[in-house]
Amino acid sequence: MDGFPRGGFFINFKSFMALLEFTTKGIYCPAADVYIDPWKPVAKALITHGHADHSRWGHQEYLCSKAAKPVIKYRLGNIRIRSVDWGEKVTVNGVHFSFHPAGHIVGSAQIRVEYKGEVWVASGDYKLEDDGLALPFEPIRCHAFITESTFGLPVYKWQDQQHVYASINQWWRSNQTEEKVSVLSGYALGKAQRILKNLDATIGPIFTHGAVENINEVMRAQGIELPLTTRVVQGMNAKTFAGGIVIAPPSAIAATWMKRFRSNSVGIASGWMKLRGPRRRRGADRGFVLSDHCDWDGLNAAIAATGAERIFVTHGYTAIFSQWLREQGYDAHAVSTEYEGELSEINESA
Question: What is the reported pTM?
Fold first, then answer.
């Protein structure tokens, strides 16, 4: 494909001397004949991280960061996958690729692409906060930057994460006094471990849905420290969970799986909790604004730090955010992809 959809039209990439192109299969580097986070099967795929909208089954070969490899293998099974250290250069047909921390989840990477003096960066998903699990976002100087815009509106501005963790722990304590089990939902990969890392384990026992505990086991095996957790299994009765907190993926909250907890209070940890509507739709008692994506200020700061003049905006508020960037003097364009950001935290499981 020579262009990408924008307002019903296609922009000819030849006018941009594009090192990367947006095709029906994914982000494509024609000089190297490889794809970045493709959503349809391809021969060679460079993967930014393990979330399902970025790492999909069916590619012939996969390349990722060493920290991302364990969970990608766990999720996709028997695949042909190779991993590299941070900053390690891989050259394909004269094109140099390297992986750099994105700060989104453990192992998440930005992919730097250099060819004949031109540098592009595909950022995947990213955040600027240091969560103590993922390596912090590394600004990379480039000519063109591909950014998400999951929360690309001025209304989305995050509180300090320590304040959010304190609120979660206080909610847990309050539920204890009312003899309610605290059930907190967040992505099984990334959000759940971030929450676990910051729970006050002296309050009571910590339980996990199987989807969360499976990821915990993968991460513990690669040396990541997490608090002691107990997998929720059949046969556990209501008394088992007394005084405890349960970490579960969003899909579990509306499922029959919840019946075992009887008296409970449901919380949701997501950037979407900044607005009241999503919390009401999910029937939650509490919403905690905690995202593994940048807020408005973070997106703008990250883009400025790259020094890039050309910006391509993928999933999220693409039209609004790209228009804002053009008003700031960037050569910015909204592009159509199949990435989802945190949309599935409202609609479905991680």
Answer: 0.91
39 contacts 25 by C-beta, under 8 angstroms? yes
Helix (H/G/I), strand (E/B), else coil: 337: coil
Give the CATH architecture of domain 161-288.
3-Layer(aba) Sandwich (3.40)
Nearest to 219 by CA among 49, 47, 68: 68
Q: Distance of CA 161 to CAs 131, 138, 196, 295, Å?
A: 8, 19, 13, 12
Give the residues across from 267 on adjacent strands.
184, 286
Burial 145-176 (b: 16+ CB within 10 A, else e): bbbbbbbbbeebebeebeebbebbbebbeebb
Domains in the chain: boundaries? 5-155+292-347, 161-288
Note the pLDDT tens digit of each residue in 131-158. 999 999 999 999 999 999 999 999 999 9
CA–CA dist 62, 193 (Å, integer): 25
* Interacting residues of 107 by C-beta distance below 8 A, sequence separation 6+: 49, 50, 64, 65, 66, 67, 68, 69, 70, 71, 134
User: Over the stretch 95-122, which tens digit does the pLDDT of each residue have?
Assistant: 999 999 999 999 999 999 999 999 999 9
* CATH number given to 5-155+292-347: 3.60.15.10
